[in-house]
Structures are given as structure tokens and as C-alpha cells.
Amino acid sequence: MKNSAAPPRRTRVVRTALPLIATLALVGACDSAVGLPSEQSGATSNTTEATTSTPTTAAPTTTTPPPIPPGPPVGEVPGNPDAAMALRPFVGDLIGGGIGVVTARCWTVPPTEIPTMYVDAEAILTAVAAPGVDGQYAVTWTGPTATVSIKRSEIASGYACPTVYPTGTAPVFDAADAVYSVDRYLGRLAGIPVNPSDVEETYPLVCDGRQTWDALGTGVPTAPPLVQNPNILTGITSFDPDSVFVTGQNGIYTQVNADIIDASGAYQNRTFVLAVGGEGYCIGDIA
């Protein structure tokens, strides 16, 4: 920035009849008294200082949230922004690609149930357009005719495949869900999971360790036997998917049988006992 102060005006020396030496002395005295060199130096110094000491003001930075991807609207969930973000890709695929696309991506859902559960796309769209509610085990969006629910593991995956059921009712876990849980569990043990991402740490199939297991009705609940001994079933190389079916129910417990093949090539028929937990069916015991 330029210095706005006017440059100092030089004092004119009047010629007199004094001898030359006196005149020179007078000029020298005037210059010394006025102090032109020091004033010029000071002006230059002040100009430089004013220029260099002026702080540079950085442009303010603002953080903007990422844009919401285009597609059908999905209501936000107070306190859980990841829920709506995880459901949007599914809703977009359902509307843009149809049942075939979501069937290929929703490998956590029994394939036989997808065409029926996701058939009413309009009811699903209406439900998810409203704000969601974060519950104990799942997040739900409720519409006039359909309720859409996604589990914690589905939210964490970034692509949430929901459970859809009539509004005013509770979600029902049926025989197909129980059978598919055992299919997935055996597939992991045999090295042929339904998807490479299907691992226990991310998608739990074993019941948790709470002291609530009482499949025999003894009145003395314990931790699930499979939690206490996770190696109940080891060394299997394959299983027969056609042999996996529900063989009985006892209150909240469901029994599923399956034929497996061990490392020696021998068949074994094993019984799996399941209960309903926070992620749907879980396996608590194998006999």
C-alpha cells in the first residue's frame, strides 16, 4: 500500500553576499537542521514497514456436508445418519433395477422371500420417505401399509437390505429364515460362504453369551452351548443344502436338521437349535 504522506519539502537557500565559505557553511547547517536524509530514510522505512507488516487475511473455510445422492427420498433418522445413507442404495436399486438387482445384492435375505417381501415398491417408497426411528435392535420407517426395518449389521455394511412387513404387525421370522441361517453357517464352515463378506464378526449367526438360553425348559437359563463351545461342529468339508429343513419348534426355539460331510467323507445328520435375537435367527446349540 502506498504511503499517503506528502514528501518533505526542501528549504530554498537565499543567496547573499557572504563569502563562499560562509555560504557553504550555511547550507550545511540548513541541511543538518532540516534533516532531509534522515526523513527520507524514515519515510522509506515506514513505507516498507507498512507494506510488510500488513497481515494477510486468509479466506474463511466452510465445511459442507456431502450431497445426498439422487434417487427416491429416504427420511433421515435422528441420531443415526448412517441409517438413511445405507438404505438409499437399496431403494435406488429396487426402483431402478427391480427385484433381480436387489436379489443379487441382498445375500443376507433368503432368496425365496425377496420377491414377496419387496413386491410392493410403492408402499416401500411411501414408508421410507418419512423420518425413521432408531430402536433397540433396528431402525424403522413406518408407512400407511408397510413398515421397513433394517438391522445394525445392515447399516454397518453401507447397503441395507430391509425387512418389510405390514404396518401394525411385528416382523415374522419363519422357516425360510431359520433354514437360511443354517445354510449360511454351514457354508462358512465348509469354506463356501454365500458371500465372501459373510463372516461372524460382521454378520453374527451365533447367539450372544447372555444367560438366557433354556431350550430344554429346565427353568435354569445358561449361556448358549455354542457360545461356551464354539468348536461343537468342526472338520466339515461340505453339506447337502437340500437336507436343511425345519423339524420342530418349542416355544421361541426352532430346530433345523442338516446332513453334513466330514473330512473322512462320512455323512452326519446334525440338529441345530435356533432362537430369535437382535439380528434375526441365531444358532445357540448343535447336537
Key structural traits:
single chain, about 290 residues, alpha+beta, five-stranded antiparallel β-sheet, four-stranded antiparallel β-sheet, 9 helices, 9 strands, about 20% strand, disordered N terminus
What features would you describe in this structure?
By secondary structure, this protein is of the alpha+beta class. It contains 9 helices and 9 strands. A hairpin with a 2-residue loop joins strand 6 (245-250) and strand 7 (253-262). The N and C termini lie far apart (88 Å). The model is unreliable at 1-56 (pLDDT under 50).
The helix/strand order is: HHHHHHEEEHEHHEEEEE
Largest sheet: 5 strands, antiparallel
Q: Show unreliable segments.
A: 1-56
Task: Work out the helicity level.
Answer: 25-40%
Distance between the termini: 88 Å
The total count of helices amounts to 9
Provide the gyration radius in Å.
40 Å
Q: Mean pLDDT score, rounded?
A: 82
> Which term fits the overall shape?
globular
Number of strands: 9
Strand content: 15-25%
Question: How does the helix and strand content classify structurally?
Answer: alpha+beta
